[in-house]
Specification:
Layout: H1 6-24, H2 28-35, H3 39-47, H4 55-64
């Protein structure tokens, strides 16, 4: 089911980031270091809290996890 509002979208992105990070076995700090974002941003993203992340940040996070960020409208 597709997210229907901003909170649902943020929560879904957070679940995806957390799942990828845990699958790889990294801490939030390790992912942040590899993606060149603060650990606190990773934490906020994973909790579905507005993190001030832009598309470039999300792309770097996805790339660090070995994936890519794709938006379907």
């Amino acid at each position: 089911m597709a997210p229907t509002d901003d909170r649902e979208l943020a929560a879904e992105v957070g679940r995806l980031v957390r799942g990828a990070r845990l699958t790889i076995g990294w801490t939030q700090r390790e992912l942040g270091d590899r993606a060149k974002v603060a650990q606190s941003m990773i934490s906020r993203i994973e909790r579905g809290v507005p993190a001030g992340a832009d598309l470039d940040d999300l792309q770097r996070i996805a790339k660090a996890c070995g994936g890519r960020f794709r938006i379907t409208l």
